[in-house]
Structures are given as C-alpha cells and as structure tokens.
C-alpha cells in the first residue's frame, strides 16, 4: 500500500500523461484476485505480477519491455 495514491491511480496518471504514455508499467502487488488484475489492465498496466514473485519472472518481464526500446535506440 502506498501513501496518498495507490498503484492503480499512479499507473493511470502515468498512462494519461502524453510524455509517459508509452512508458511500460509493471505493477507489483500482493493483491492477486481476478478483479485486481483486471483493474490493473483497465488503468493501463502492461504487466501485473503478484507477490511473491521470483527473481526470474521479474527479470523476464522487465526484459520483455526493455528489448524493444533497446532495439529502437540501435536503429
């Protein structure tokens, strides 16, 4: 739990800002219900991982979103 804004509100603000709209958002949460995951997608998260998550699953998720940006910078 975060003070003032929760993760859903924070994600929504990031995705509504034209400068950051394309920034991938990976939500990390202890809430693992179907509603929680759907809410994450509704506010624009690109991926939703629930705690406890493994180091490998986190690194794989980050790599999924890091590789396209890395490829674009090399062109």
What is the secondary structure topology, with strand pairs?
Layout: H1 7-16, E1 26-29, H2 34-42, E2 47-50, H3 55-73
Parallel strand pairs: 1-2
> What fraction of residues sit in β-strands?
5-15%
The CATH class, by name, is Alpha Beta
Low-confidence segments, ≥5 residues, pLDDT <50?
none
For the record, what is the CATH homologous superfamily label? Response regulator
List SSEs in N-to-C order.
HEHEH
Shape: globular
Mean pLDDT: 88
- The count of DSSP E runs of length 2 or more, i.e. the number of strands, is 2
Number of helices: 3
CATH topology, anyone? Rossmann fold
Q: Give the tally of structural domains.
A: 1
Characterize the biggest β-sheet: 2 strands, parallel
The chain-level structural class is: mainly alpha
Q: Helix coverage percent of residues? A: 40-55%
Q: What report would you give on this structure?
A:
The chain has 75 residues and is mostly helical. It has 3 helices and 2 strands. α2 (34-42) links the parallel β1 (26-29) and β2. The longest helix is centred in the last third of the chain and has 19 residues, at 55-73. It is globular and about 30 Å long. The chain starts with 6 loop residues before the first helix and ends with a helix. The mean pLDDT is 88.
């Amino acid at each position: 739990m975060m003070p003032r804004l929760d993760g859903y509100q924070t994600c929504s603000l990031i995705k509504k800002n034209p400068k950051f709209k394309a920034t991938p958002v990976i939500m990390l949460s202890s809430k693992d219900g179907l509603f929680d995951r759907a809410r994450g997608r509704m506010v624009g998260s690109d991926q939703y991982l629930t705690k406890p998550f493994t180091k490998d699953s986190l690194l794989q998720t980050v790599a999924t979103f890091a590789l396209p940006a890395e490829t674009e910078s090399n062109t």
